[in-house]
Every structure is written in C-alpha cells, then in structure tokens.
Amino acid sequence: MLTLLKNATLHAPEPRGLCHLLISDGRIAAIAPADDGSALPAQGPAVTVKDLEGRRVIPGLVDPLVHFIGGGGEGGFGTRTPELNLEEALASGVTTLVGALGTDALTRTPASLLGKARELAAGGLTTYCYTGSYQLPPVTLTGSVAGDITFIPEFIGLGEVAISDHRGSQPSREELTRLAAETRTAGMLAGKSGIVFIHTGDAEGGLEPLREVARHSALPLAQFLPTHVNRTAALFEDGLRFAREGGRIDFTTSTTPELLADGEVPAARAVAQALAARIEPSRITLSSDANASLPRFDADGRFIGLRPGRLGSLFDTLAVCVEQHGVSLEKAIGAASTHAADALGLTRKGRLQVGQDADLLVLADGAWAIDEVWAMGQRVYLA
C-alpha cells in the first residue's frame, strides 16, 4: 500500500512550499511540487490519498533525553517520577526518543529501560537507549559499555554521565577518557554514533572536564553531547565557548518556575541567544528531559523539592522560539529534530527527504498545535 499526502506546506526543515508526499514501506518514496504530479503514481485502489489542504508539515521531533521509566528519588522513594505513558508520547510530536537512566541506577536498571523502549516501539515510535547512568563505573546489560553498544540494537551510546554535579561520581579525567574511547570504538564497530551523553550540573567547573579529555587525548569534543547547558547563566556562557571550540550543546526544555527564578535560561531564549552569538546552528540541540526529576537543592546540597519533566515541552519550545524570539521555523526544527538526529547518528531521522523515515507532524491551520502525528509512515495520533 502507498500513502499520498497531498497539498502539504512542507518544512523539511527548509521551506519547500506546497508539496505532495508519497509514503511507501515506512519511508518517503517521492516528493513533488503540488503543481507537478508527474513523479507520483496514478491514484487507484493501492494508493491511500489524504489531502492536507495546505497545512504545515514538519519532521517528527527527535528527543535525545527521555527517562522512559521515570527518574528522581533524590527526596526518597516518595519522590520517584512515573514512567512515560504511550498515549502522552504519541500526542507529543516526538517520534524518535532516546531513553536514559539518571541518578537512580539501583532500583531502575538497563534491562527495564530496554523493556520500556521496546514497549514504546511496539506502539509505533522509534526508540533507542544509552547504557550507563550518572555514576561510574557504568551499569550495563552485557557486562561492558562496548558489549551493550555492539550487541544490543537499541543502545547507541553512553549516558547520562554526570559531571560538575554532587550526585555524580566525580569522575577523573582518566575515567572519562577511557569510557569515551570505549564508547567511540564500540560505536564504530556497530555502525552507531557512540555518543557520550553528559548530564552537566551547576557546580563550579561546568564543561571543563570535557575540555580536559579533549586536551589530553585524541577524542574530539563532539564525541560528547552535554545537556542542561541552559541551567544557569554561567553554564550557558560556558556552553557558548564549548560550541565555538567544536563541541555540541543541548538545552533542556522542561523547567519549573523555581528553576527559572534560580537563574535558568529558558530553552527558547537560549536557542535565540546562541544563534545571535553566531554559534553554528548544527551544534545546538534541544531535549525534554521528560519524566526526569527537576530537583532543587539548597546551598548545602539538601533536597528542597522536585517536579517531573514533560515530553510535550519540546514541541512547545518550538512555538516560543518562532513566535516570541524570531527564530526561523527551519532553525527551530533543526534544534528539535535535525541536529539531534545528526549528533546521534540517526541518518534516516530529522529530515523530510526521499529515502528518509516518514516521521512527520501535521500542524493545525493557523495555530501552533498538532493535528496529526505520523511515525514510520503510519498515523499514530489524530487530535
């Protein structure tokens, strides 16, 4: 069966005007201008046709940090956050998700993370995972980081390893270097990115541990993807320097009034300011940190409280980027989809081009809202 989506105002992420899209076997088989259907098949019983009537179509979002099985626990068992719900995920606009453990790698495990990834995949989404957690040595399924990445299809890298945070293991430069090298090599052997996804806390030092690895080894800064770089103004400025030096930076879209009052830079503003500072757009990504805990601690590191991250914050941030900060839709989509796909080595994600996976969002007419979500060529959500 073929599916023909007619009259889509296509942002791929670059604007391509009014187009028809032909979907076959979960991928985009053809794209043609709406006034030229010569590249498309004749309509017949084998072709399902849907007229989008000029509505905007953008790539499905790619989220490099989702806590599938919840997070939290910094305030005791009563503060554990819940697992991600499939229905919520389908409505969020995120069609590719990468799952991680966080602070808790004792009551939550790589096995349960992988099981949840496969549950979400059975519901129509594309899911991957990081092996490891905040702490070192990393928890794994096969006994090693290299084994997990090499032998388990869903595991694409190591994360979420904590630096500059009192909840981490305070890893040495040598520990980070060895693990990053192991992850990189395993990624090459398995045809994966071998990315090392980094949780960055707000302690003094910021991203300096990653620079130290690069200075004293052959590993590039781009082997790391540090997140929460907008958590404080000082860390944001450090992140801009990191990006100018050749690294990538990830801004967290989930937040709370308390974190903003403490000095967090809102993610949409962070994107706009980074672009205004002439940071190469491909070095900027967004993630939701969905279902993680967003905790607060006092000056002595004592727990004050937390709220959970929200998957829908990624799509919401796109609207703020475009409508309040003047970021072009193309660059906003890049931060929320294209650049993350590139950083994670997901070559068929993040763009609407021939041969790419047919993951797309149909936006409402005249409003920033999702009418439909298509994942791997199937409609999985209808508003």
Q: What does this protein structure show overall?
A:
It is a single chain. The protein is α/β, with parallel strands linked by helices and 383 residues long. The protein folds into two domains: 89 residues, Roll (Urease, subunit C, domain 1); 283 residues, Metal-dependent hydrolases (TIM Barrel, Alpha-Beta Barrel), CATH 3.20.20. The protein is 28% helix and 28% strand. It has ten helices and 18 strands. The strands form four sheets. Strands 1, 2, 3, 4, 5, 16, 17 and 18 form an eight-stranded mixed sheet that branches. Helix 4 crosses helix 5, helix 8 crosses helix 9 and helix 9 packs antiparallel against helix 10. The longest helix is centred in the middle third of the chain and has 18 residues. It starts with a strand and ends with a strand. 51% of the residues are buried. The mean pLDDT is 95.
